User: Which sequence fits this backbone?
């Protein structure tokens, strides 16, 4: 098997070694839930996220943030427009290919962690490599590295029930990282955390960004939104980017 | 920096193909090429070892529930194994008894009257000798119950009422017939061909009869009286392997009985032949001709029953009922597993969503839950097999039998558990694979 590491990926046809290919490219992407009545949860929108960017998506409840995440995370297919992930046209993919692309290129972090309660931190992290044919021997080593990366090397064998909320979320982040994704998609990553834990998670995301990870964080919290290089606002399904000077 | 690609008209590529062709060229091209392009991304995989590991982990995370779930299968498979094992054990028991006695025994009946109402008794005077000439015969002889005139009683003294009112049967038997019963003598001996040939008044008593007549020892040369006829008691029989009626009777030579009371009534006389192992069927075919070359149809030889039909007869009835019960337990076990797996699927919706997000395909979810239910079934099957085998051994020990199990039963039983589990898991696993990841993760 190949293509699990950065080098393997570069060899693939629509490879992404190229820094110029955006990680996310929305071209008129929209999603309407069929209903009845049909709900236009995401209006046609344009969005480009480049490699290494840290963007935040803010909006009030029911505005369409999760819908956006589902589309970006290939959990839902858009009903209109074109979505290129790492330059790959996702509309042309068959179901199995979409699933595989999701598993290999996107790391998810959820508000409610979604850790398996009866598995240790390490086992939870290895889960992200089960479906992408990473050899068993390599999984543990990669899981350890990922846990150390999020500062939990010492809690590697703990069950989630024995971890604080912030630690749990960091295990979830380690799980996302272990799959070596090109994009980290976080839906309200601090929604269930107190401010101290939230701070540590946000600091970690900042560090990951600094080391080159592409990160999209969805939040309704303006303070969290501040952490991003760019902030996209979503309201009634309409995505807009207030012109804000982020960098040259 | 702000990147805003030129706005494109909204289109729905999948759901409304009739919409006008997109004006957006750069994309149209790669898309048309798409059928030729191979493998944009490595497909998701799930190794067999991982499936097993996940299934075992899923089973162990709720050990108590898993045990209860497997209980139905344990009972079903256990009953199944116990019944088949007990059947095998008892029929091997029957087989061995059958080999010793029944398989080496032929009875010949006098059916002359059915053919010809004026026929004489069918057995010739030299019947024993004729049969003993056949290969494979060990002992053979004619016997019948003597029909005494009313009021004729068996006593131990010429007159008097020593015996009370109970009747004692008198049996006429040639020496061969007596030997064929394989008697064990308490005292004395059997009468032989010489005594029989000269129609001597000798008798052999069953132990119970001797006790009733008050005869405890042969040293005083006691006699018994049948009516007024005195008979010297030659021997007292302690036990027989065949013809248990001998124990309750006074047995006298055939010739003596004929001299005193005439030939047997039609159909009364029978011949008992004991044979070497395996010879019985052949001898049964030959006997009527050997006895009556002129009228073989006057005699009917009854060979030993075929051991296979005998076993089938035993297996039937009760065992089928129990096997049905085992099947019912299995169905209940399957319903239990189906129910638990369905609950687990609903409980673990979040986990299913997570796995889908991590790249699991619907079929990977199906396989995982099928393996889990299959593992539960197999566990139940293994425990059930162990219990079933223990039951068979315990019963055999108590009854002093040799426990017999067919290897097929022991090998098939856990497989029955596996199949039960997999079948039970089909619906829940299918449901699990249909769960939409976006829906599942919303929780
Ligand atoms: N499966 C669905 N079918 C129909 N309508 C839906 C479905 N899922 C979401 N919606 C609707 O789409 C709109 C956007 O929902 P979404 O979940 O994206 O909001 P959100 O911004 O994530 O809200 P919150 O901050 O509360 O999570 C809402 O009006 C919601 O009711
Ligand atoms: Mg939401």
Assistant:
């Amino acid at each position: 098997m190949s293509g699990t590491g950065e080098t393997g990926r570069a060899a693939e046809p629509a490879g992404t070694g190229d820094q110029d290919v955006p990680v996310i490219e929305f071209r008129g992407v929209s999603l309407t839930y069929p209903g009845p009545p049909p709900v236009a949860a995401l209006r046609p929108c344009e969005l480009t996220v480049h490699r290494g960017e840290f963007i935040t998506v803010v909006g009030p409840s029911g505005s369409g943030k999760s819908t956006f995440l589902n589309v970006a995370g290939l959990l839902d297919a858009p009903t209109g427009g074109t979505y290129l992930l790492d330059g790959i046209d996702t509309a042309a993919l068959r179901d199995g290919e979409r699933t595989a692309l999701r598993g290999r290129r996107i790391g998810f972090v959820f508000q409610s962690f979604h850790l398996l309660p009866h598995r240790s931190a390490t086992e939870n992290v290895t889960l992200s490599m089960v479906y992408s044919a990473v050899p068993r021997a390599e999984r543990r080593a990669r899981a350890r590295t990922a846990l150390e990366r999020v500062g939990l090397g010492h809690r590697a064998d703990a069950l989630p029930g024995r971890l604080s909320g912030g630690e749990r979320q960091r295990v979830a982040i380690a799980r996302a990282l272990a799959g070596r994704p090109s994009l980290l998609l976080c839906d309200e990553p601090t929604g269930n955390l107190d401010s101290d834990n939230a701070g540590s998670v946000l600091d970690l995301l900042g560090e990951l960004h600094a080391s080159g990870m592409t990160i999209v964080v969805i939040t309704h919290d303006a303070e969290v939104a501040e952490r991003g290089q760019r902030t996209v606002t979503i309201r009634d399904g309409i995505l807009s980017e207030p012109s804000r000077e982020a960098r040259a | 920096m702000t990147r805003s690609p030129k706005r494109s008209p909204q289109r729905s590529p999948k759901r409304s193909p009739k919409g006008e062709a997109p004006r957006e060229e750069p994309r149209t091209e790669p898309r048309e090429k798409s059928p030729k392009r191979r493998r944009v991304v490595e497909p998701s995989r799930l190794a067999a070892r991982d499936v097993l590991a996940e299934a075992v982990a899923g089973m162990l995370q709720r050990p108590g529930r898993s045990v209860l779930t497997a209980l139905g299968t344990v009972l079903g498979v256990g009953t199944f194994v116990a019944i088949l094992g007990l059947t095998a054990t008892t029929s091997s028991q029957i087989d061995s008894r059958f080999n010793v006695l029944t398989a080496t025994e032929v009875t010949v009946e006098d059916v002359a009257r059915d053919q010809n109402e004026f026929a004489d008794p069918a057995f010739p005077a030299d019947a024993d000798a004729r049969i003993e000439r056949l290969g494979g015969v060990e002992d053979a002889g004619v016997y019948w119950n003597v029909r005494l005139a009313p009021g004729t009683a068996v006593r131990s003294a010429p007159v008097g009422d020593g015996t009370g009112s109970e009747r004692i049967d008198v049996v006429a038997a040639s020496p061969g017939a007596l030997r064929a019963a394989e008697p064990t003598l308490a005292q004395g001996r059997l009468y032989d061909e010489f005594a029989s040939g000269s129609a001597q008044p000798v008798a052999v008593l069953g132990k119970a009869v001797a006790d009733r007549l008050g005869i405890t020892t042969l040293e005083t040369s006691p006699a018994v009286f049948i009516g007024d006829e005195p008979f010297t008691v030659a021997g007292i029989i302690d036990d027989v392997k065949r013809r248990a009626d001998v124990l309750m009777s006074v047995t006298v030579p055939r010739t003596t009985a004929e001299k005193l009371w005439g030939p047997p009534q039609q159909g009364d006389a029978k011949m008992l032949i004991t044979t070497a192992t395996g010879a019985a069927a052949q001898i049964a075919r030959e006997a009527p001709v050997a006895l009556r070359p002129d009228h073989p149809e006057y005699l009917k030889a009854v060979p030993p029953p075929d051991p296979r039909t005998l076993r089938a007869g035993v297996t039937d009835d009760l065992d089928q009922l129990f096997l049905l019960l085992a099947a019912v337990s299995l169905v209940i076990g399957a319903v239990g597993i189906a129910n638990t797996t369905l609950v687990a699927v609903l409980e673990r919706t979040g986990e299913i969503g997570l796995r889908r997000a991590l790249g699991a395909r619907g079929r990977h979810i199906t396989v995982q839950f099928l393996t889990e239910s299959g593992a539960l079934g197999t566990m139940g099957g293994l425990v059930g097999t162990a219990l079933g085998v223990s039951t068979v051994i315990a019963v055999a020990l108590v009854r002093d039998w040799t426990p017999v199990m067919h290897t097929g039963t022991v090998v098939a039983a856990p497989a029955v558990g596996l199949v039960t589990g997999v079948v039970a898991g089909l619906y829940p696993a299918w449901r699990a694979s249909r769960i939409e990841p976006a829906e599942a993760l919303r929780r």
User: Anything to note?
Assistant: The CA atoms of residues 38 and 357 of chain B lie 23 Å apart. Chain B has two domains: 48-97+309-442, 106-305.
